[in-house]
Amino acid sequence: MPDNQRPLSPHLQIYTPQLxxxxxxxxxxxxxxxxxxxxxxxxxxYVLCQGEAVxxxxxxxxxxxxxxxxxxxxxxxVYYHLLNGIRYLMWSLGRGYELSCVYNSGxxxxxxxxxxxxxxxxxx
Length: 124
What we know:
There is one protein chain. The model has no long low-confidence stretch (mean pLDDT 89). The protein has 124 residues and is mainly α. It contains five helices and no strands. Helix 2 runs antiparallel to helix 3 (52-62), helix 2 crosses helix 4 (65-92) and helix 4 packs antiparallel against helix 5 (99-123). It has one domain (20-123): 3 helical TM bundles of succinate and fumarate reductases (Up-down Bundle). It has helices at residues 10-14, 19-50, 52-62, 65-92, 99-123. It is elongated, with a radius of gyration of 20 Å.
């Protein structure tokens, strides 16, 4: 007779998130952010075709602090997806499977995303 007190998915209560699993989930989320970036580029191209007045209105819209924060968030998704994709590509080539290399490359990707965002904010 089955015990009804047992949880259905006990692995969810005892599983400790690791860097590799968190980065895998964020890679999927950043893919969605990458789609948002492509939509933003398409909107930008459309606005360019509409003339100078519409383009200036669009630039004024992008100047709002909340919109800037959202654009930088989308850009962070693009940077993360690109760098983590290179990491996955190295794995596809059979390199970097050692546990220390997996964690070092994960932390390097995370660090480089922050560096690239800071550089972008500073230069733009």
